[in-house]
């Protein structure tokens, strides 16, 4: 019983279907025209800059990507660190509360 029974199908190989490479840019353009929205996540822009020294606290923040990107852009335009940008936002908040 050690002999394997062969039915003659041993040399049959699965058919390989060749697909042409898709032009990703054309596919994306057509999808945009049809109103499809990408499922890929939007990347957050990150710019590293040395902040001022001194005592610091830390917390994690989950915010909308658009808001984070706007904050990063603002800090970049004003040439300040995120720490300085957060400090300026808190300064604006305190001024608004006084008036």
Describe this structure in words.
The chain is mainly alpha-helical. It has a domain at 62-99. Helix content is 40%, strand content 0%. It is built from three helices and no strands. The chain has helices at residues 24-33, 65-77, 82-98. The protein is elongated and about 90 Å long. It starts with 23 loop residues before the first helix and ends with a helix. The mean pLDDT is 84.
Layout of strands and helices, then pairs:
Blueprint lengths: L23 H10 L31 H13 L4 H17 L1
Number of helices: 3
Helix amount, in percent? 40-55%
Q: How far from one another are the termini?
A: 96 Å
Secondary-structure class: mainly alpha
Provide the descriptors you would attach to this structure in a database record.
0% strand, 99 residues, mainly alpha
Give a summary of the structure in a few sentences.
With 99 residues, the chain is mainly alpha-helical. The chain has helices at 24-33, 65-77, 82-98.
């Amino acid at each position: 019983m050690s002999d394997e029974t062969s039915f003659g199908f041993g040399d049959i190989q699965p058919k390989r279907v060749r697909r042409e490479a898709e032009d990703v840019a054309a596919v994306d353009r057509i999808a945009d025209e049809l109103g499809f929205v990408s499922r890929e996540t939007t990347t957050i822009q990150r710019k590293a800059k040395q902040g001022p020294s001194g005592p610091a606290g830390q917390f994690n923040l989950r915010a909308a990507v658009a808001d984070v990107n706007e904050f990063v852009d603002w800090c970049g335009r004003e040439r300040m660190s995120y720490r300085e940008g957060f400090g300026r936002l808190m300064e604006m908040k305190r001024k608004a509360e006084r008036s």
